[in-house]
C-alpha cells in the first residue's frame, strides 16, 4: 500500500492565522485558517508546489471563477477570495464546512431514506443551477459534497468543470465509481445527463453504503468497475426501506444510454419530490431562481419545514393534483389532411420542450416522469385537477412518429415531433398501451443479434416500433409486424447490443414506456 504523503507547508497569508490541515488532494491541500477581519474560520485550498504548470494554474483559476459565479446557491460552497501567496502558490479562501462530509458518512452510518432524498433534491438544485449557468461539474461524488454548519450539503471542487457546448467531451480526470459509461470510453463525450448520472450514483452511495457497482468482499479493480458500469444492471441498494419507486428512479437516472436518463437535474429533483410525497414526507423545496416573468408561488407555512428553508431559499412550491387523470388524445382541426387527422386522434399533446421554473406538480405514479406545467395565479386549482392529463413523455411522441410515417406510406424513418397537432381540444380518454415483455437478444454465429419479445395484451392490427440504442443521440426507429427483429452483424459490433421496442395499436396508439433489452 502506498504511504500517505505529508501535507505541504501552509503558506503565510497576511490577515490569516494557520490552524490545522483539513485534507490532502492530488493537486492541492486544504488548510483551516482563522481570518482576522471579519473574524471567522475559513478553508484555504492551496496548490502544491509541484503542480504549478500552466494547465493546472488555468484550471485552478477556472475553479475560482466558476465557484464564485455559483456561490449564491445555498448548496454550493462559497468562495471568499483568491490570490497568489508570497511563495508563488495560488490559493482559494472558501467557506469552512465544519460537519462531516458525505464521503465520511456514507460508509460509516446508515443514512435514512428521508435524509438521502432531502440531500438529493438540494444537490440536484445546485447541479441544475450550474447547468443553467452553462457549467458542467463532471466530478460529482460524495467526497465533493461537504456539509455546512447548518447541515446543508454543499457541492465543491469544480476543478475539472467545463462549460456546456465547449470542450464538454474532454476530461482531465474522473472518479470511476460515479462516472457514466460515456465518460469512460477512449473518446469521452458528455453533457448535462452525465452529471445526472453522477448525481444519482452519489444518492445511491448514501443509501447503499457503497459505490454503485462495488461488490462487497469481491474484486473491485478499476477495470472491473468500468466493465460493470458499461454492462451490468444497477444492483439493488439492499435496503428494505428503499421503495421500488426510488430504485426505479436511480435506474433511470443511471441508464447506460444518456437518452434514457432524466433530461435535467431539475427533473431528477422533481422525481425525488414525488418519492417524498409517496412516503408522506415533508416536500423539500427546489433551490432554483425564479424566472423574471414567472410569479413565484407562495409556499404554505408548515411546521415540518425548518427556518433554514424559509430564510435562505426562494422556494418552488409543490402542488398535489386533486385526482389523477389519464393522458387525453388530441383531435386534429377540421379540414386537416388525412395524415394530420390520424395524428390528431392518436397522440396526446407534448409539453413544450423548454423547461422553465414554476410550480412543481406531484403527479400520480403513472405520470411521474412527465414535466410540470407552468401555472398562472388564479388557475392553480383547475390545473391541480386536470394538468396531469395533458402532459406526456416526449419519448412517446418520438416513437409514435415512426409509426405514423410508415402508416402514411413513407419509408419508416421517424417523423419530426413538430408534425403533431398540439393545440386542438381534447376528445376523450385512451386506454394505456402496455410495454412489450420478455425482451431478450441472442447473438448468432454470423455476428448478428436476434431479439424476441412478447405482447402481454395482443390486439388485432398490433405492430411494433423498434430501434438500436446508441450511447449518444436518439435511436433510429422502424415499424415491423412481428415480435422478432434481427440486428445485422454490421450494426452489432459492440459486446453488448441494446434495443428498445414499443407496441403500436391499429389506431396508432403506442406503449407509454418502451421496453429495453440487451444481448444476454
UniProtKB/TrEMBL annotation:
Limits of the Protein kinase domain? 16-273
Q: Which CDD domains match?
A: STKc_PknB_like
Q: For bias kind Polar residues, which ranges apply? A: 412-421
GO MF terms here are:
ATP binding; protein serine/threonine kinase activity
What's the superkingdom here?
Bacteria
Q: Does the keyword Transmembrane helix apply?
A: yes
Protein name as it appears in the record: non-specific serine/threonine protein kinase
Q: Which organism encodes this protein?
A: Cellulomonas terrae
Amino acid at each position: 500500500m502506498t504511504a500517505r504523503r505529508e501535507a505541504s507547508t501552509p503558506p503565510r497569508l497576511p490577515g490569516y492565522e494557520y490552524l490545522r490541515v483539513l485534507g490532502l488532494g492530488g493537486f492541492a491541500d486544504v488548510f483551516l485558517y482563522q481570518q482576522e477581519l471579519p473574524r471567522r474560520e475559513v478553508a484555504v485550498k492551496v496548490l502544491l508546489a509541484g503542480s504549478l504548470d500552466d494547465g493546472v494554474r488555468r484550471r485552478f483559476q477556472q475553479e475560482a471563477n466558476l465557484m464564485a459565479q455559483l456561490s449564491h446557491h445555498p448548496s454550493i460552497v462559497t468562495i471568499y477570495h483568491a490570490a497568489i501567496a508570497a511563495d508563488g502558490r495560488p490559493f482559494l479562501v472558501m467557506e469552512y464546512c465544519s460537519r462531516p462530509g458525505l464521503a465520511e458518512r456514507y460508509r460509516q452510518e446508515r443514512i435514512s431514506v428521508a435524509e438521502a432524498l432531502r440531500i438529493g433534491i438540494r444537490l440536484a438544485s445546485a447541479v441544475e443551477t450550474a447547468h443553467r449557468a452553462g457549467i458542467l461539474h463532471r466530478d460529482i461524488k460524495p467526497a465533493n459534497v461537504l456539509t455546512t454548519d447548518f447541515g446543508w450539503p454543499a457541492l465543491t471542487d469544480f476543478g475539472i468543470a467545463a462549460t456546456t457546448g465547449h470542450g464538454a467531451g474532454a476530461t482531465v480526470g474522473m472518479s470511476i465509481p460515479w462516472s457514466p459509461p460515456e465518460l469512460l470510453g477512449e473518446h469521452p463525450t458528455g453533457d448535462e445527463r452525465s452529471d445526472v448520472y453522477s448525481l444519482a450514483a452519489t444518492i445511491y452511495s448514501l443509501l447503499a453504503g457503497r459505490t454503485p457497482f462495488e461488490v462487497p468482499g469481491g474484486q473491485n479493480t478499476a477495470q472491473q468497475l468500468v466493465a460493470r458500469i458499461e454492462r451490468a444492471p444497477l444492483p439493488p441498494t439492499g435496503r428494505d426501506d428503499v421503495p421500488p419507486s426510488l430504485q426505479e428512479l436511480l435506474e433511470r437516472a443511471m441508464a447506460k444510454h444518456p437518452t434514457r436518463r432524466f433530461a435535467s437535474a431539475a427533473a431528477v429533483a422533481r422525481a425525488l419530490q414525488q418519492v417524498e410525497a409517496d412516503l408522506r414526507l415533508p416536500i423539500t423545496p427546489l433551490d432554483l431562481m425564479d424566472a423574471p416573468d414567472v410569479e413565484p408561488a407562495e409556499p404554505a407555512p408548515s411546521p415540518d419545514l425548518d427556518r433554514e428553508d424559509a430564510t435562505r431559499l426562494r422556494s418552488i412550491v409543490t402542488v398535489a393534483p386533486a385526482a389523477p387523470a389519464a393522458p387525453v388524445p388530441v383531435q386534429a382541426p377540421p379540414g386537416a389532411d388525412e395524415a394530420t387527422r390520424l395524428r390528431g386522434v392518436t397522440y396526446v399533446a407534448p409539453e413544450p420542450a423548454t423547461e422553465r421554473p414554476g410550480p412543481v406538480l406531484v403527479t400520480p405514479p403513472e405520470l411521474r416522469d412527465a414535466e410540470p406545467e407552468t401555472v398562472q395565479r388564479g388557475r392553480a386549482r383547475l390545473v391541480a385537477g386536470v394538468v396531469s392529463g395533458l402532459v406526456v413523455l416526449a419519448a412517446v411522441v418520438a416513437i409514435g412518429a415512426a409509426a405514423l410515417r410508415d402508416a402514411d406510406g413513407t419509408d419508416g424513418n421517424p417523423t419530426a415531433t413538430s408534425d403533431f397537432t398540439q393545440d386542438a381540444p381534447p376528445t376523450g380518454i385512451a386506454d394505456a398501451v402496455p410495454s412489450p415483455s420478455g425482451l431478450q437478444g441472442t447473438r448468432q454465429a454470423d455476428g448478428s443479434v436476434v431479439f424476441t419479445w412478447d405482447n402481454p395484451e395482443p390486439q388485432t392490427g398490433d405492430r411494433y416500433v423498434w430501434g438500436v440504442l446508441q450511447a449518444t443521440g436518439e435511436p433510429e426507429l422502424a415499424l415491423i409486424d412481428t415480435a422478432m427483429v434481427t440486428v445485422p452483424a454490421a450494426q452489432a459490433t459492440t459486446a453488448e447490443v441494446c434495443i428498445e421496442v414499443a407496441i403500436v395499436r391499429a389506431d396508432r396508439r403506442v406503449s407509454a414506456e418502451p421496453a429495453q433489452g440487451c444481448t444476454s
